[in-house]
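Record 1 of the preview.
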Amino acid sequence: MTDVASRRDVGERPVVPERVMTLTVNGRSYALRMDTRVTLLDALRDRLGLVGTKKGCDQGACGACTVHVDGRRVLACLTLAAQAEGREITTIEGIADADGPHPVQEAFMEHDAFQCGFCTPGQIMSAVALMTEGRAGSDEEIREFMSGNLCRCGAYPNIVAAIREAASRGGRDARL
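->
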């Protein structure tokens, strides 16, 4: 037998590959002792208490867990925390600044681009990234590059309007 149970005595716990990882989240460094198989999503929510990033499908299909790693959007449920070590992670909690909400957050409020709000953090993080990528040139382009973020409430027209509004105010140079 080569399974875990055959390599340990009965009653012993299997060896878990843990190590200290340093994650830089929203400009702050955290040293965490974790199992190397912990996802970035679980590290953010369960270890750091940053619950703005949502656990939707936990399979990479809904976009609710979208965060930025080195300025690029990633699905935190499909990314190991170890993969993000040494990189800059930005969550929904980190995009506002001392001057107030990010322009995309303001536009979402102005255009009522949320209903239940569960998908909103992932929608906003994707919207900020697509604007930074210069992909907010038309409603069709916005729809295409937001297609990985699902909204069960169907607020899509308002989401597109909010992104269009935020892009028109600051384009892809809207502050991060």
